[in-house]
Amino acid sequence: MRYGSTRRSALALAASLAAATVLSACGGSGGDANQELSKDPVTLRFTWWGSDARHQRTQQVIELFQKAHPNITVKGEFKEWNGYWDSLATTVAANDAPDIIQMDELYLASYAERGALLDLGTASKHLKTGDFDANALGTGKVDNKQYALPVGLTVYSIIANTDLLAKFNIAVPDDATWTWNDLKSVGAQVSKASGGKVSGVQSLGFDIGGVNIFARQAGASLYDDKGNVSIPPQVLTNYWQYILDLAKEGAAPAASVSVERASAGLDQSGTATNTAAFGNWWNTQVTALTKASGGNLKLLKLPGEAQSAAPAAYYKPSMFWTISSRSKHPAEAALFVDFLANNQEAADILLTDRGVPANNKIRTAILPKLTATDKAAGEYLDTVKVSPPPRVTPNGASGVESILKRYTEQVLFGRITPQQAAEKFIAELQKEIDNA
User: Fold this and answer.
1) Which tens digit of pLDDT belongs to each residue from 403-415?
2) Are residues 188 and 304 in the same domain?
């Protein structure tokens, strides 16, 4: 679950991209990504977002690469998340995009479908992907072309506070067999045993991961292959009814508490403040949550997986590496992405700054070097069964979580029924896609 994300501030990207109509003609003017590497001086531009610590680590990796390839200079263009997407849209529209672009899943289709990104399948001479799981590579495909290489991976999970469970003499559930009703039941036990001071379950409904899981366990999907909303209204109705029942039966907090926490930062969540025994999170968030809570947290597999015909769990990329289709040096850009993704020295510097590595070989190699919680997140990633990932977020749907959050709030406060929320959500999201 994502709380207080600055991601919402980037929703203006849709308007920026809509205005940048030249994007539709920006593909195909770069060089051959599989050509021989130049022996002449080459300068690459590389843009990313993140903290100062990420900036420092990335600069170290750039220096390593330049030492190995003295004729290639990599100029970093480091930005905060706020403003990153407006800047990228502007440079792409002006045919002045950086050669290597750190990309987010929400906006991958927007750029790929407009021809702004290189098909990495055309760069196989310099960029190797043999150490990546097929389901991981699938997260970066649009229309069956590999436009993006996942940097880190995460999977949806339940994080349990084992200190709270022990305090109230409640056993940790068997996550190999449990159901969503089991989660509701054990959550209600915690709430009752604590006299209401601790909620059993942190409310769902504020991030798209939960919707994807409910849809996939029902044999459905949020989007079809063409990028249209395809989730059956009944599946969404059941999803919101479950969230409503959690609150009504005392397993989750009152609506006002859930909404307030969902609007705050991660450190104000029920998991972080030790006021909820179970929370739905991406597995790699266990490190930040453990630091905030000061308690013992345990990653559990999702309820309902044992009853599902196929695993609903899927890999979600922390971010991607992409290459501009306008790059004048696509071969060298591919070589640099290969270094970022496959080089052990680079991995030893980056560690999990951009998530638990998607590269299986690299992930195995760095696990012993990680903190206990990062190591737990990495090991969890290797134990969960996953299916092919959902269709990449369609162009126009980058605001899906804001829409979801709004309807969850209305359902929790009793302003609309789960069925009404399902119908309105589908219609609004499809309209956003149609208008993109």
Assistant:
1) 999 999 999 999 9
2) yes
Cα gap 274→369, rounded to integer Å:
28
Mark whether 356 and 234 lie in a shared domain.
Answer: no
| Cα 171 versus chain centre, distance | 31
Beta-carbon contacts of residue 383 (< 8 Å; ≥ 6 apart): none
- Report the SS3 class of residue 268: helix
How many angstroms separate the CA atoms of 374 and 67, rounded?
30
- DSSP code string of 3-61: -S-GGGGGGGHHHHHHH-GGGGG-TT-S--TTSPPPSS-EEEEEEEE--HHHHHHHHHH
Residue 187 tokens read as 């959550």
Range of the domain at 107: 6-152+318-382
> Domain total for the chain?
2
The residue to which tokens 């207080």 are assigned: 4
* Total Cβ atoms within 10 A of residue 61: 22
Same domain for 415 and 285: yes
- Taking only the tens place, the pLDDT of each residue in 121-165 is 999 999 999 999 999 999 999 999 999 999 999 999 999 999 999
